[in-house]
Amino acid sequence: MIIILSPAATDNDLDELLTNLKDRGYGVHLSKGVEKTIVGVIGAHDDVKPMIAEQLSSLAYIERVVPILKPYKVVGREFHPDKSIITVRGVDIGGQKVVVMAGPCSIETEEQTLEVAKAVKAAGASILRGGAFKPSTSPYSFHGLGEDGLKMMAAAREVTGLPIITEVMDARDIELVSRYADILQVGTRNMANYSLLQEIGACRKPVMLKRGMASTIEEWLQAAEYIANKGNYNIILCERGIRTFETYTRNTFDVSAIPALLGLTHLPIVADPSHGTGKFSLVSPVAKAAVAAGCDGLMIEVHPHPEKALKDGPQSLTPDHFAAMMQEIAAVARAVGRYV
Amino acid sequence: MIIILSPAATDNDLDELLTNLKDRGYGVHLSKGVEKTIVGVIGAHDDVKPMIAEQLSSLAYIERVVPILKPYKVVGREFHPDKSIITVRGVDIGGQKVVVMAGPCSIETEEQTLEVAKAVKAAGASILRGGAFKPSTSPYSFHGLGEDGLKMMAAAREVTGLPIITEVMDARDIELVSRYADILQVGTRNMANYSLLQEIGACRKPVMLKRGMASTIEEWLQAAEYIANKGNYNIILCERGIRTFETYTRNTFDVSAIPALLGLTHLPIVADPSHGTGKFSLVSPVAKAAVAAGCDGLMIEVHPHPEKALKDGPQSLTPDHFAAMMQEIAAVARAVGRYV
Amino acid sequence: MIIILSPAATDNDLDELLTNLKDRGYGVHLSKGVEKTIVGVIGAHDDVKPMIAEQLSSLAYIERVVPILKPYKVVGREFHPDKSIITVRGVDIGGQKVVVMAGPCSIETEEQTLEVAKAVKAAGASILRGGAFKPSTSPYSFHGLGEDGLKMMAAAREVTGLPIITEVMDARDIELVSRYADILQVGTRNMANYSLLQEIGACRKPVMLKRGMASTIEEWLQAAEYIANKGNYNIILCERGIRTFETYTRNTFDVSAIPALLGLTHLPIVADPSHGTGKFSLVSPVAKAAVAAGCDGLMIEVHPHPEKALKDGPQSLTPDHFAAMMQEIAAVARAVGRYV
Amino acid sequence: MIIILSPAATDNDLDELLTNLKDRGYGVHLSKGVEKTIVGVIGAHDDVKPMIAEQLSSLAYIERVVPILKPYKVVGREFHPDKSIITVRGVDIGGQKVVVMAGPCSIETEEQTLEVAKAVKAAGASILRGGAFKPSTSPYSFHGLGEDGLKMMAAAREVTGLPIITEVMDARDIELVSRYADILQVGTRNMANYSLLQEIGACRKPVMLKRGMASTIEEWLQAAEYIANKGNYNIILCERGIRTFETYTRNTFDVSAIPALLGLTHLPIVADPSHGTGKFSLVSPVAKAAVAAGCDGLMIEVHPHPEKALKDGPQSLTPDHFAAMMQEIAAVARAVGRYV
Predict the structure, then answer these.
(1) Shortest CA distance to D23 belongs to which of D52, D59, D63?
(2) What pTM was computed for the model?
(3) Which of A124, A224, B130, C241 has the fewest CB atoms within 10 Å around its CB?
C-alpha cells in the first residue's frame, strides 16, 4: 500500500509513521515531493494490510492510503489463469456451451413444475430453476412451499433429467436444500450474509452467487472469496442488475460486468435478465445482449400463466415465448463462437 | 389499486379484466377517458393486492398498476398515531431525551471495553454499543470475539449500569446474544435477511433495525413490518447512510429520512453518523445535523486509540473528541426542544 | 391524473378540491373507498396538467397525485407508431443497417483525422465522429481545436465521403458547427441545457441527443421533446451509460434502455460503449451486446495512438482493434437480422 | 502520480515507460515489490498530469494510475487557508451570520414578488431569490417571465433593500441578468455547462454554483475552478441534493457535503432544502440540519399560495411557515455559535 501524507504532517509525524511501520515488520520506500510526501509499504503480512490501512487512515496527518493489491485472491484470475468449469450432473458451466437455467420464480404445484420443466427442456434449457424458499420485500407476500417445493423439483428432475438449482436463504436450511438441489443459489439480498456464505463454503455443493443489488464488482468477488476461503471452489457468479435511480426497469442490468468479470476472475458468469429488467418484454433482448457480451449461462423465469403466478409474473415468459427466445439466443451464441 | 389499460387494449381485454376482478370478489370503478381507460379496484383482501397487482402487470394489455395503500401497516403512523417509546433498563428511546449509544466498533479486550464504557458514560451516553459478531466485506478481516465479546460488554454494564446493544448476524445466535444484550442490532447487510427478521420478531427483545444501504424508506418499513408482524413491536430504526455515486464519504447519510420517518411511522429513529460518513472529522457535524432534524438517538463509534482499532478506526472518535461532541450535541438538542 | 386524498382529509377539503377542478374545466370521477378517497381528473388541457399536479401536491390534504399520461408526446411511439429513419447524406439511421460512427474523441491534427477516417471507413464505419469543441471536467484539460477542428473533419469527409458528427456545446456555436457538420451532437452534460435544445429544435439539422448521466429514460424523452416541439424531428438518441455506485467502469451502460426505448419511441437508438465503459477492453463486448439488444447504431472512439491521445485514450481502440471488432459486430448483427 | 504496473508487464515495458516519463521531463521513483512494480512520478508540469495519467491508462501493461494531487487548486483550502467572505450590498456570505435567501421559485407578478419580499424580509431573510429564467424538465411547463421578471425583482429590491439572486441559464443572458441581479445563480443542470461557467468567470459578479445532481464533491469543486480560473473568485457553493435510488424525496440532500466542503475549500456553502427534499413538510427540519452541520446560508422557496404556484409548489413554504421556520433556525444557529 501507499501512504500519502497530509500537507500539515510534520517531520515528527513522519518519523512516528516510519517507526510504526518498521515495528510491524514492513519495509518502507520514502518519496518526498515538492507538494506531497509519500510512503510505500513493502513486505509480508498482506492479510492484515487492509486493517492497517484502516488504522492509519484514522491518523490526522495521513491524507489517504492507497491499496495496491486486490482485496481477493483465490477467485482472482491472477491466482488461476484458466477459466474454471463447474460440472453438474454432466452439464459443464463455464465451457463453450451457454447453459440456460429456466423455470418458474416460485414452485407452486407439482403439475406446474413438471409442465414448465418439460417445456423448457424441449426448448433447450439444461437446468431447471425454481424457488422453494422465497425472499419477498413484503411479509404479506408468498414465501414458498419449503421442502414440499423441493420435492416437486426433484420429481421434475426424475422425469426430465434436468439438474436443479434453488435458493437457500438460511444457514440452517443448507443441509435440507442440499439433499435435493444440484446447485445452491445465494440471492441478491444474501450476498453479504457472511454466515451463510461461510457455511456454504464448508460444504462442497456447487453454488451460484447472485450480485448484491448495491454491490460493486469488487465486493461481489470478496463475497465469493468468503466461500472459496472455506474450500468450496464450485462457485458461479450471476449478474442480476443493480439498483440505480432509473425506475423504468426493476434493476439496471450491468452488462459491462460480464466482460469485466471475465478479466478479473476465473469463475463462470451467468446472467439473469428476468430480475435484471423486471419486464417480460425486455427479457429476450437483454438475454441476447448478455450472450453477446460473453456470459456462460442464462437464468430465465418461465411460467405457464404469468398472470396467475404467485410471484414475479411481470418478468416471466410463457413457454412459447421462451422457446422463441431460445432460437434467437442460439443465433447470437453462434455469432460469438458459442452454442446453446 | 388503480389499473391503467394500454392504448392497444380491446373491449374484450377490458371485459376479461373486469370478470377476473369480480371473480376475485372486488368491486370495480370504470373510467373511460379519451386517451386512457382506467379501472379502480375496491374492496377486501388487501393482503393479496400486491400479488394481484404483479399478476395483472404481466398482461400485455395493462400499461401500469398503481397501488393506493402503503405496503406496510403495523409500523405505519396511520395505524398508531402516537409516537412509540421503547424502554430499555429505564432508558426511554423515542421520548424527549436524545439517547446516545456509544462504544467501540469491535469489542477487543475487557480493558478497552471498560475504559470506553466509563468514558462515554461520563460524557453523557446512555447505552453502550460494541460488536462481538462483526460483518466484514473481506473474509480476511477481523470478525469479532463472539461470546467472549458479549461477556466483556456484560461486565462493562455491571460496572457502569449502561444497557448494551450489539449486532446479531445469524438466526442461530439470537438466543445466545439475547442472553447478554439489552437491544439486538440488525446490521445494514441483514436488513433484508427475512429469516433473521422473523425470528427476531418471534422473540420480544428490543431490536434496532439499520437501513439497508440500498433500501428505500418504504422497503425499510416493510422490513420492520416483518418483525412487527411476528409480534415484536419494540423496534427502533437506524439511518446509517445509503450507497450513492459519491465516494468522498463511505455512505451518503440521508438526513431527510429522519423527518420523513417521523411522519410515516411511530417507531423511534436513531442516526449513525459514524457509518454514515466513514470519516471521524465529519461525525460531529453530521450528528448535530441529525439531532436538529429530529432524531431520537445517536449511535457513535468511540475508541481510545482509533489508529490501533481492529475495525473502523477512520470513523471512530477518541473519548476526548466524544466528550467535546456531546457538549455540542446538547446545545443543538436544547435548540430543538430536546435534551441529551 | 388521479388524486389520492390523505386519510386526514375532511369533507370540506374534498368539496374545495372538486370545486377547484370544476372551475378549471375538468370532469371528475369520485371513488370513496373504505380507507382512501380517490378523485380521477378527466378532460382537456393536458398541457397544464403537470403544473396542476404540482400545485395540488402542495395541499396538505392530498397524499399523492398520480399522472396517467406520459409526459412526452411527439417523440412517443403512440404518436408515431412507425420507426423513424433519419437520412444523412445517403446513410439511413434507424433502418436495417446498424450504422457505425467512429473516430477520435478529439480532433488533434489533419493527419490524425484523415488517418483515422480512412481506417474506420475501410473497416466498415459509415459516419466519422470527432470532437472540435470538448467538454472536460477539469479547466486544465484540452478543450478542442474549435473551427480548425471542424475544417479538418470536413477535409476528411471530402476524401472519404463519410458524413460527420460533432458536438455543439453552446447555442452560439450552432450556426458555425452546422456549416461543417452533418449531425449535431448534444453531449451528456448538456442533455438538460434547454436553451441549447430549443435552438437546435429551431434549425432542421439532424441531432444526436446523448442521455444525461443522471437522467431517467422519461426525462431523456422529455429532452428530445424539447427539440421536436420546435419542429426538428431529426432526432437520434444515444445511450452512453449512467452514473451509479459502481466505479470499475466509468459509467454503467444501461443495455435495457435500448429495447425499452424501442417500445416507447419511434426515434433511432445509438449506443456508445466507449463512454459507457471507459475501458478499451470492454468496448467490443459491450458493442456486441448493444447490437444484440437491438440498437440502430454504434458510436466508437478510435485513435491511432491511444497512449498519446489528448483525451479519452483509455477507452479508445486502435484502428486494428476497431477492424477486428467490426468483424465481430457484423456476425452479431446478422444473428439478429441486421447488417453492418 | 503513481503508476502500478500490470503483473504481465515485462522489463521492456518498464524501460519504455521510464524513458517515456523521462522524455517528458519527470523524475521517477521505482519500487519493485514481490507482486507489483510501482513507479512514482515526480516533478513539474502538474497541469498536464491528468492528461498523461489518461494516456498511460490506455497502455495494456499498466494496471492503474493513482493521482496524488487534488484536481483543483484555486478553490482549495490548501491554496487559501482562510475562509472567503463574499460581500453583496453589505451582506457578508461566509461569516458568522447564516444568510437566508428566500422567495418564490418563479417570479409571477409584481404583487406576488413584492408580497413575498416584504414577508421574508420581515421574517429575517437577507436576500431575495426568484426565477426569471426557469429550467423545466418538460417543454410544456412554465419557463419564466424573462426580463419582466428581473424588473419585478429589482422593484422589490427598491422597496425592501434586499439584494437579489436569480438564475442565468445561457451565456447570452449574462449581460442582461447582471444588469439586475446582485448574485448570478448557476443551476444544477448547468453545473457542467463549461461555456456558461467560463463566461461567468470572465465577469466579476458574485455567483452561486449549485451542485450538479449527479456530481461528486470533487467534480463540483472542479466546476468552481472553471469560474475561478477566469478570475472570478466571488463563488458561493450550494448543496441542493443528489440523485439516488430513493424516490420518497425529490433528491437526497447530502448533509455531509457541508462539513466536507468546509475542510476542502475556502468558499462559502449554502444549503437548499427546498430542492433537496421536494416536500414542504421536510424543508424546516432539513434546514435546521444544514445549519447544525455548519452551512453559511440557506436558500428557501416561499410562495404566498403554494397551491397556485406556477412551479415547485409542493416544496414551497407559505410566509407564515417561513416565519416559524426562521425562529427555529435562529435557535439552532445560536447553538452552533452562529446567528441568523
Answers:
(1) D52
(2) 0.94
(3) A124
Taking the CA atoms of A272, A276, A279 and A282 in sequence, report the sign of the dihedral they define.
negative
Q: What is the pLDDT of residues D193-204, one digit of tens each?
A: 999 999 999 998
Q: B35, C245: Cβ pair inside 8 Å?
A: no
pLDDT at A293 over 90: yes
Contact criterion met (CB below 8 Å) for A242 and A249: no
How confident is the model over A20-29, as pLDDT tens digits?
A: 888 888 888 8
D135 CB neighbours in chain C (<8 A) are 192, 194
Which ipTM was obtained for this model? 0.93
Q: How far is CA D333 from the centre of its chain?
A: 22
Mean pLDDT, residues C249-272: 97
Confidence bin at B212 (pLDDT 50/70/90): very high
CB B38 within 8 A of CB B64: no
CATH H-level, domain D2-66: superfamily: Phospho-2-dehydro-3-deoxyheptonate aldolase; domain 1 (3.30.70.1140)
CB contact A10 to C (< 8 Å) = no
Q: Which residues of chain D are within 8 Å of residue B257 when distances are taken between CB atoms?
A: 246, 248
Question: What does the alpha-carbon distance between residue B241 and residue B213 come to, in Å, rounded to a whole number?
Answer: 7
> Cα–Cα distance between B12 and B18 in angstroms, integer?
10
DSSP character at residue A268: -
Residue A330 Cα distances to A125, A171, B41, C173, C287, angstroms: 11, 37, 43, 48, 19
pLDDT at D65: 87
The sign of the torsion formed by the CA atoms of B84, B87, B90, B96 equals negative
Report phi then psi at B94, rounded to 5: 115, 0
- Best of A239, A243, A246 to disrupt the C interface (most C CBs within 10 Å) is A246
Give yes or no for A30 touching D (CB within 8 A).
no
Q: Domain coordinates of chain B in residue numbers? A: 2-66, 86-335
In this complex, is the C-beta atom of D291 within 8 Å of any C-beta atom belonging to chain B?
yes
Statement: residue A151 has pLDDT above 90: yes
CB C43 within 8 A of CB C27: yes
Beta bridge mates, B79: none
Question: What's the CA gap between B18 and D285, in Å, rounded?
Answer: 46
Neighbouring residues of D244: CB distance < 8 A, sequence distance ≥ 6:
A245, B242, B244, B252, B254, D251, D252
Answer whether CATH 3.30.565.10 is correct for domain B86-335: no
User: Which strands make up the sheet holding D27-32, listed edge to edge?
Assistant: D27-32, D37-42, D2-5, D62-66
Is A76 part of the contact surface with chain C (CB cutoff 8 Å)? no
Q: How many contacts, defined by CB atoms under 8 Å, are there between B and C?
A: 38
Q: Determine, for residues C36 and B247 on separate chains, whether the beta-carbon distance falls below 8 Å.
A: no
Mean pLDDT computed over every residue of chain D: 92
Tell me the three state secondary structure of residue C71. coil
Q: In sequence order, what E strands does chain C have?
A: 2-5, 27-32, 37-42, 62-66, 86-88, 91-93, 99-103, 127-129, 164-167, 183-186, 207-210, 235-239, 269-271, 297-301
